[in-house]
Amino acid sequence: MQLTECERSPGASSDARVDRRRLVAASCALLSATAAHGQEATNAVSDALSNVWHFDTALAYYHENGRVRVIEPIVNFSTTLDDGRTFSGEAVFDSLSGSSPNGALPSNKPQTFASPSGASLSSAPTTYTTSSGQLVSEPARIYTVQPGALPADPHYQDQRIAVTGTWGLPLSRLTSASVGGTVSYERDFVSLSTNAGISRDFNQKNTTLSLTLTNEFDSVHPVGGAPVPASDYALFRKTGGKTKDGLGATFGITQVMNERWISELNLSVDRFHGYLNDPYKIISVIDPTGNTTGYLYEKRPDQRVRKSIYWENRAAWGRLSMDLSTRYFADDWGVHSDTVNLHVRWWNPGRDRFLEPDVRWYRQSAARFYLPWLDSTAPQIANASSDSRLGAFHAFTYGLKYGARNTDRYDHTTSEFSVRVEYYRQIVDRRPAAPGALQNLDLYPGLQAILVQVGYKF
Amino acid sequence: MGERPASEPAVTIERRGDGFLAACFAAMASPCELLLHDVDADRAGALGEIAAREAGRIEAKYSRYRDDSVVAAIHRSRGDPAGILVDPETASLLDFARECFALSEGAFDITSGVLRRAWRFDGSARVPEADAVAALLPLVGFAKLGWQAPRLLLPIGMELDFGGLGKEYAVDRVFQLIAAETQEPFLVNFGGDLRANRATPSGPWRIGVERPESERRAAMILGLERGALTTSGDARRYLLKQGRRYGHILDPRTGWPAPGSPRSVTVAAASCVEAGLLSTLAMLQGAAAEAFLAAQGATHWILR
User: Fold this and answer.
1) Is the pTM of this model over 0.90?
2) Do the chains contact at A256 and B156, CB–CB below 8 Å?
3) Domain range for residue B20?
């Protein structure tokens, strides 16, 4: 038997259901093309793809108008090992500086405060005794706020370093487990958390169910000690370190709706218990004429139960892709919030550049114990905080991201450079009218911030 | 040389009859051999290493089961509107797959692997529900891919599987590499897909084609001077329900095996990729397999 070689194409009969001539031509094209480059492709692919580490790095600059500035480098990494396990991690370093509102209300008179490291309102260095009986001497840092200005500690400074690691362990073709942990360290705050999860694919891998449990333990040891909640600021009653702990669960379902659309629903619940106050926040006590008579340290409940529902839809049509997510949140402090977030990404015809505008709308109601000030004539109340993050407000974020991607055609590694700019505006919704002299002051300044982020993924 | 990479199978040399040596290794879930005539054992070992390295390379590059394969990289890019840039070899395979998809009017489709989510060919009676198969069909179809060399866009939920092409392609690639090394007669055989360069001094290569076990008859012996032979069949992979046999070659257009398929189809052609496509398509013709191959002018042997 003699078989025909490429150059001598057989004559296919005209009623053939497959055009044999086309098949012979395609076979010859495949084998002659690959003969030329098969060898050259050999090394590039097998060397580059085993145990590849992917890195996602970013440098962010965040600036609140007239307040805090944050510089934050982030490194994300992930890899898949030979046995199918995955390892991913993240390291974040935050450097915060600037001025941070201390919770007091503006006044028509100058107000003097001590930075948290200070022991009293006197300007001389002082010595005080900590709970452990140690004598500590520190220079008091005093700051004075001019009439009408929002009181803020101008010496605010903090550094945070956080490291997260997660192991992914395939258990079977359809089931995988993950375990992970996070350590976050600040001068006055250490947080340790662990998590474990399991996920399983169903419905021919079109549906994934997952359950993740988290456990967190935090140690709070504020500069100068933790203030006694609801105590008089002038007395500087402070204790040693405090702790809080949290336990949470998230149930998730991801569904492939069709080849263009994927939908994800997450239900989360968690409970925190312990010292939940912001140790640096105080609250003004105002008399009926609008004069500030003093300040108390804030006091929050020692338990918080939070629940949220998150629904995200991702879809793609050709060069356009979209991500629409919405979240509803409620806790037992009385805070309810709604978030809607839309990202739209356009790729250029060559699909190596994209432009991604995004818009986010957020609204929250106030915690039941949120009070911009305390009335000096009212009886003592159980819990009170003037932290604007617990007040009622709504906010808009407008952002634009530009990205450029480069894929290596031999080893399939992709690198992506991106720049993102975001503008955030927060508007206070509930503005109780203040008495007397405070009526002409802007007590609810809201917040504006910008974020600039430069990223490089490889 | 250093340590042997995981993708390079170990080669053993066996003596086969008068003047023949076989370099044997395992790759692509099949026993593989390079049969050589009139060479010494060292030479056979060196040529066997070339064959094993190339087979291991192609297997590692196109495996569905390895996280470091090109297929895995493509699957990771799923849903990414920017797609993924593929290397020239993968681009050639995708071009070939597209051409085969077009000229077979969708009967040959490297996106049909998702059907395995419904079908498991383990000799049992677990034939899937019609609904489960129908639900997967929207995820099948080469035309739904965005493919313009070198960029590939893989929609969410879809999969690529070079399994219907990879072994035949590997035989042809190894054949080319060995042909560049020697003028002596040789034959590359990867689990029954094979290609020879020329007849041995004692005549054509003698190829045995297994009959289905139930027939208890000796293998059919074919003679091959040069060219490729591939066999498609369901001798080992099938489902049996209520006396009906469901072969493992599924029609991507329906999600079901063609009714009345032969037990096995053996086709001769110039190259393995060409013979493999013809034998696969013939299986999908069911009762019309003989007429189909006759119309192609393809030399063939069919067992029913």
Assistant:
1) no
2) yes
3) 1-64+161-203
